[in-house]
């Protein structure tokens, strides 16, 4: 059965095209900085938003009726949804998908029933993957929807819940490995707390580290070669999420000996919720050599929650792509559209428009960023700001050979430093001219 019979394969038609179901900028074979656009981005469809989310919100029911829903039997329902997923990705030329365990199929009544269902689904997926060339960017476990996780999963105060969560992660890892998943994600879900009055934070964080070690050790012992990502988010659903932002997560990983195996998956809307920009979070991860993957979306400047809208801000994405190109790209990951169409976007076509827009935006941002690095004054200007460290005493300081007394003597004889403008407005104009 065809789920999107009115949609043909989406092709690159160039900026002049007036066909809404075409790419204007995303030409997958176009080469930028030594790689094709498809290789740079490894675009992924987020199974949960695109195939599972019918538009329900806390005030009302779903608004979309999916032709793949309504099956009585869980596995038949999962297979229909998966067929739709592969038709969708193939038509868009999206090479990867990301999933939570129970996006693929409804959770069973016990771990073993869930395992059976997941096995049936990975068999079905393997055949579809072989036929289409679509791959798994990352898998993960949904450790936040079921009521048993209301007080957290790995950080739950009840050991029985911690053990149950670990059992679920084992199955999610098994499913990811069966599908040759390139990576595996840990997003905090409800790992955090609502009130410190009833919370032993230190103990919960120790448990989180032990849990991550156990999961990583299991997967490595099974031969998993991919990267584990951890996805920072400051709040929602918990008031205080332990994985607040990139800097917090990097500190936690280093403190607990997890920094060799885990890298970061940076989500735009999580960055802005934590009071940072997306590009700041990417840069913090890149500084630590841990920029693994991206969850692409955008927030709303007036709303303080994870609205997960499809990205459309060219200036923001261009700045982000500058970070990406300067740091050498994503380490193992790709660009996963962790984004949902609005509740009143009820046509199946809207899912295509949303992804086309996001893919074109990233392509445009990367091309602009590359142009900035190659043909504009940006790099030279930025380099020149630091030129006093390139030789002489500045270079000695960078080598760590100047003591505080030596710096005192140098400063005393040099007098008041000259002011040098940061020229932010000029930098911003240079970026604008590249768009
Ligand atoms: C929620 C997160 C989630 C993760 C995967 O805010 O972004 O979707 O990416 O569990
Ligand atoms: Ni995400
Ligand atoms: Ni999110």
Distance between the termini: 42 Å
Q: How many independent structural domains?
A: 2
Which structural class best describes the helix and strand composition? alpha/beta
- How much beta, percentage-wise? 5-15%
Say how many strands there are. Answer: 12
Q: What name is given to the CATH topology of the largest domain?
A: TIM Barrel
Strand order of the largest sheet: 3-4-5-6-8-10-11-12
- Compute the number of helices: 16
Oligomer: single chain
Tell the overall outline. Answer: globular
CATH homologous superfamily identity of the largest domain: Divalent-metal-dependent TIM barrel enzymes
The gyration radius over C-alpha positions equals 24 Å
Order of SSEs: EEHEHHEHHEHEEHEEHEHHEHEHHHHH
Helical fraction equals 40-55%
Poorly predicted residue ranges: none
Please explain how this structure is put together.
The protein is an alpha/beta fold and 435 residues long. The protein folds into 2 domains: 31-375, Alpha-Beta Barrel (TIM Barrel), CATH 3.20.20; 379-434, no CATH class. Helix content is 46%, strand content 11%. Helix 3 packs parallel to helix 5, helix 6 (159-178) packs parallel to helix 7 (201-221) and helix 11 packs across helix 12 (348-375). The mean pLDDT is 98. The structure holds D-xylose (XLS) and nickel (II) ion (2 copies).
């Amino acid at each position: 059965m065809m789920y999107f019979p009115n949609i043909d394969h989406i092709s690159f038609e160039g900026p002049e095209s007036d066909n809404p179901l075409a790419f204007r900028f995303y030409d997958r074979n176009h080469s930028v900085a030594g790689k094709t656009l498809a290789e740079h981005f490894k675009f992924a469809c987020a199974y949960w938003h695109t195939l599972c989310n019918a538009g329900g919100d806390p005030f009302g029911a779903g608004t979309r009726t999916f032709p793949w829903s309504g099956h009585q039997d869980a596995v038949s329902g999962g297979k229909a949804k998966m067929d739709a997923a592969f038709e969708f990705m193939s038509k868009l030329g999206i090479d990867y998908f990301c999933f939570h365990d129970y996006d693929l199929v409804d959770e069973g009544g016990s771990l073993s029933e869930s395992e059976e269902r997941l096995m049936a689904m990975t068999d079905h997926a393997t055949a579809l993957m072989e036929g289409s060339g679509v791959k798994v960017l990352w898998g993960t476990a949904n450790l936040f929807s079921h009521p048993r996780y209301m007080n957290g999963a790995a950080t739950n105060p009840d050991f029985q819940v911690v053990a149950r969560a670990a059992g679920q992660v084992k199955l999610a890892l098994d499913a990811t490995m069966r599908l040759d998943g390139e990576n595996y994600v840990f997003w905090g879900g409800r790992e955090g707390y609502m009130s410190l009055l009833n919370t032993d934070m230190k103990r919960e964080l120790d448990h989180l580290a032990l849990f991550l070690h156990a999961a990583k050790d299991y997967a490595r012992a099974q031969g998993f070669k991919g990267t584990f990502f951890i996805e920072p988010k400051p709040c929602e659903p918990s008031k205080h999420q332990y994985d607040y932002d990139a800097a917090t997560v990097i500190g936690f990983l280093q403190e607990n000996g997890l920094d060799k195996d885990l890298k970061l998956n940076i989500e735009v809307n999580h960055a802005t919720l934590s009071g940072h920009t997306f590009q700041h979070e990417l840069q913090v991860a890149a500084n630590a050599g841990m920029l693994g993957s991206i969850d692409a979306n955008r927030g709303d400047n007036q709303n303080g929650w994870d609205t997960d809208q499809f990205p459309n801000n060219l200036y923001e994405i261009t700045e982000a792509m500058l970070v990406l190109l300067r740091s050498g790209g994503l380490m193992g990951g790709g660009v996963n559209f962790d984004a949902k169409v609005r509740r009143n976007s009820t046509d199946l076509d809207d899912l295509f428009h949303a992804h086309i827009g996001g893919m074109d935006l990233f392509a445009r941002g990367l091309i602009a960023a590359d142009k900035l690095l190659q043909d504009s004054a940006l790099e030279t200007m930025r380099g020149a700001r630091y030129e006093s460290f390139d030789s002489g005493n500045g270079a000695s300081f960078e080598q760590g050979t100047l003591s505080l007394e030596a710096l005192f003597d140098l400063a005393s004889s040099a007098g008041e430093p000259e002011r040098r403008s940061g020229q932010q407005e000029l930098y911003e104009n240079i970026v604008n001219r590249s768009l």
